[in-house]
From TrEMBL:
This is Ribosomal RNA small subunit methyltransferase D. It catalyses: guanosine(966) in 16S rRNA + S-adenosyl-L-methionine = N(2)-methylguanosine(966) in 16S rRNA + S-adenosyl-L-homocysteine + H(+). GO terms for molecular function: 16S rRNA (guanine(966)-N(2))-methyltransferase activity. Specifically methylates the guanine in position 966 of 16S rRNA in the assembled 30S particle. Pfam families: Cons_hypoth95 (PF03602). It is an enzyme of class 2 (transferase). Keywords: Methyltransferase, rRNA processing, S-adenosyl-L-methionine, Transferase.
Length: 202
């Protein structure tokens, strides 16, 4: 039998906690609003992911697509990433993320209140991305168009790390030059880390 959810007080504004687990902001507690489709990456998965990423995060330029709470991008900044672009179209989630970036004095964080796929398809970057977090709302099925846009616009630096979080039955295909580095399944979530290797145009 499913557990009955505890009703939150009206004054609580339906906010959820977020704790950063490593780096300069380790242990800092933030919060974010309860929004449809917003499903932050849990502590255990984040811990595993950033153990995988440890050599690649410092000084990295990256993007947290479909940022939501910003848990992944904030964790990367906490652990030494140079710059992180956060894309979030939900107004409440974007405002909370802006507030949290200000609270942390995260000068390397740039928030774009924009649909991530639109940004990937039409936006610009000042440097190729070395670190990409791709964790869209599962019901939206945005993995393939996001992967295709990253490839079409040549957004990735050689050796870039791409993290993809999805449901167990989610279907998408990555290019041949995205090498699967690690993959794990926890509950109803599958998470994978790929590395992009540029191919010669000659």
């Amino acid at each position: 039998m499913a557990k009955q959810q505890r009703r939150q007080p009206a004054g609580d504004s339906l906010r959820q906690p977020l704790r950063l687990i490593g780096g300069q902001w380790r242990g800092r507690k933030l919060d974010f609003p309860l929004c449809d489709g917003l499903r932050p990456t849990g502590d255990r998965i984040r811990e595993t992911l950033f153990n995988w990423l440890a050599p690649y995060v410092p000084e990295a330029v990256g993007a947290d697509l479909y940022a939501g709470s910003g848990a992944l991008g904030l964790e990367a900044l906490s652990r030494g990433a140079a710059r992180m672009t956060f894309c979030e179209r939900d107004p409440a989630a974007a405002k909370a993320l802006a507030d949290n970036l200000k609270r942390l004095d995260a000068s390397g964080g740039q928030l774009l209140h924009i649909d991530a796929l639109h940004w990937l398809s039409t936006g610009d970057i000042t440097a190729p991305l070395a670190l990409v977090f791709l964790d869209p709302p599962f019901a939206a099925d945005l993995w393939q168009p996001s992967i295709d846009a990253l490839v079409a616009r040549e957004w990735l630096a050689d050796g870039a790390a791409i993290y993809i979080e999805s449901g167990l039955d989610s279907v998408f295909q990555v290019p041949d030059n995205w090498q699967l580095h690690r993959e794990k399944r926890t509950g109803g979530v599958c998470y994978r880390l790929y590395f992009y290797r540029a191919t010669s145009k000659d």
